[in-house]
Specification:
Blueprint: H1 3-18, E1 39-42, E2 45-50, E3 60-66, E4 79-83, H2 95-103, E5 110-111, E6 115-116, E7 129-134, E8 141-146, E9 154-161, E10 168-173, E11 180-186, E12 192-200, E13 206-214, E14 217-219, E15 227-229, E16 233-238, E17 250-258, E18 262-269, E19 273-277, E20 287-292, E21 298-304, E22 311-318, E23 323-324, E24 331-334, E25 339-345, E26 353-359, E27 367-376, E28 379-386, E29 395-400, E30 405-411, E31 416-422, E32 428-430, E33 432-438, E34 442-446, E35 452-455, E36 458-467, E37 471-477, E38 486-490, E39 497-500
Antiparallel strand pairs: 1-39, 2-8, 3-7, 3-9, 4-8, 5-6, 9-10, 11-17, 12-16, 12-18, 13-14, 13-15, 13-17, 18-19, 20-26, 21-25, 21-27, 22-23, 22-24, 22-26, 27-28, 29-36, 30-34, 30-37, 31-33, 31-36, 32-35, 37-38
Length: about 500
């Protein structure tokens, strides 16, 4: 086997570990000994994992699955989302489940005591499908999509908690498994109850470490080392149990020694509500944090420099009319290995905004997130906005309702033209689309198109048409009395396609 073929096999294997497999082309003609130019092809298999939604008996959780229609996928495939641990590696039920089936005392959703019924099963690309769960016993979910359901598959988990610690609207985009995660913005302050959720989709156990970094650097703990996550299972770790003293602003670093997991932090506050904190984009010297609500009453920026050099950052706000520098917060110095936090107050002052971070001098990679608060007094609610990558070719936000969805688009460099498509509704409605122009250095909050005759929920797909990179987020609101409940999800590229060079031989055997 020559070096070109070995390299290609390694690349395909790495791809399988992250997003699934791409379609492979026919073998080259005899006599050719170099790979042809890479083709952009749809992925053929992908995994998404959803953390256990809540510890509250008052929680009501909605799941929404959506796959955009993608050219070149064919007509086959399937997708489903099931409870973690519901099915063993060989596809049969766990022994306890079989026994329950024999005794006639089956768990809710089990079928013949052999396999738990999926929470949801998509029927066709281009149309959302929904599922629900209630109470504190709802498990983490493991999802797999194949064929035409895989490219761009998105699942939104949205939980509404009416009262108690963390009351509010908690939303997260179910995520693909990986091996390295950064969460600036966590806390072990007395008013906060933060959990790190780790979910393992594979047939073998995963082992992960959790490191915590505060304002003075790493917080030593052996409890966070070597955390074992059994196959097809999820573990939640209360962050306050990992260190001795409370720390208001933390950066959580999850690394996986063996296997792979999906990771998310659930941040619950006694008075400010709660939400999910998604991972920040990978460390970079320039970051974009899109979609600060125009009526935000408090915004806190949390930044961490993971390398050995300090970072000096220029802080700018991309408003609807251009880029401005927040008064009194022109720059931020972040010491190496330490977490820095700065309160920006009501930085948007009634206008749409996104935060842009860039080096003032030497480029030093950082990670960052925003804690955003809306409301006043006893009627406050919290959400988080991590730094995120650009939309790329396409990005999707599932679970939009007839009212309450706001799409935020920011062009940090050159201006851009963007197409936004509203899918058909989960229970009826016709897809609609609209094109928006985002000027350079601005943020535009738009009311997205709504499907004609909408019934149920729908998905929004964002596709840049021309110009520079675009970053995006979606805010979903669901007011409960005087509490402005909301959640924000960033929209990075959906990784629905991948570049695959044509090989000397057909490598489709690797897909089996």
């Amino acid at each position: 086997m020559n070096r070109t073929t070995v390299s290609l096999i390694a690349g395909v294997t790495a791809l399988a570990a992250v997003t699934g497999f791409a379609s492979m082309s026919e073998p080259q003609a005899a006599g050719e000994d170099t790979a042809k130019a890479a083709a952009q092809l749809p992925v053929e298999r992908t995994s998404l994992l959803c953390p256990a939604p809540s510890t509250s008996d008052l929680a009501e959780t909605a799941y929404t699955s959506f796959t955009p229609v993608t050219k070149g996928t064919g007509t086959g495939g399937k997708a489903e989302l099931v409870a973690a641990g519901a099915q063993s590696a060989d596809g049969t039920a766990d022994e306890d489940e079989q026994q329950d089936g024999e005794e006639g005392d089956k768990k809710d959703g089990e079928k013949d005591g052999k396999k738990e019924k999926p929470v949801l099963t998509p029927k066709e690309p281009g149309k959302p499908v929904t599922g629900k769960a209630s109470g504190a016993e709802s498990p983490a979910l493991v999802g797999t999509a194949e064929g035409r359901f895989a490219p761009g598959w998105a699942v939104q988990q949205t939980t509404e908690v009416e009262a108690g610690t963390g009351r509010g609207l908690l939303g997260t985009s179910c995520s693909a498994p990986d091996t390295d995660f950064w969460f600036p913005g966590a806390s072990t302050a007395k008013e906060r109850t933060d959990y790190a959720h780790l979910t393992n989709p594979d047939d073998s156990a995963a082992v992960a470490d959790i490191e915590l970094y505060g304002k003075d650097g790493v917080l030593k703990s052996t409890v966070g080392e070597g955390i074992k996550i059994p196959p097809h299972s999820s573990e939640s770790v209360l962050l306050s149990t990992l260190i001795d003293k409370p720390e208001t602003n933390l950066t959580v670093h999850v690394t996986v020694r063996s296997g792979r997991v999906a990771a998310a932090v659930q941040a619950l506050d006694d008075t400010l509500g709660g939400d999910w904190l998604a991972p920040s984009a990978a460390p970079a010297d320039s970051l974009v944090l899109p979609g600060i609500p125009k009526d935000a009453t408090s915004v806190r920026l949390v930044v961490f420099a993971p390398g050995e050099a300090d970072a000096d950052l220029k802080v700018r706000l991309a408003s609807p009319t251009g880029t401005i520098t927040p008064a009194g917060h022109e720059t931020l110095h972040v010491k190496a290995g330490m977490t820095a936090a700065v309160d920006l107050g009501d930085v948007t002052r009634g206008e749409a905004g996104s935060l842009l971070l860039a080096p003032t001098g030497k480029a030093t990679p950082v990670v960052a997130a925003l804690r955003v608060v809306r409301g006043k007094g006893d009627n406050q609610e919290t959400a988080f906005i991590p730094a995120t990558g650009p939309v790329g070719a396409r990005a999707t936000a599932a679970d939009n309702r007839a009212k309450g969805s706001t799409l935020s688009l920011v062009a940090p460099g050159r201006g851009a033209k963007v197409k936004v498509t509203a899918s058909a509704g989960s229970e009826g409605g016709t897809a609609a689309s609209k094109t928006y122009t985002v000027k350079a250095g601005t943020t535009q909050n738009v009311e997205p198109p709504v499907p004609a005759g909408l019934k149920g929920t729908y998905a929004l797909t964002v596709e840049p048409l021309s110009g520079g990179p675009v970053h995006a987020s979606r805010m979903l609101e669901a007011a409960e009395g005087d509490v402005p409940m909301f959640t924000v999800q960033t929209l990075p590229d959906d990784r629905g396609t991948v570049k695959v060079p044509e090989a000397e031989q057909d490598l489709s055997v690797l897909q089996k």
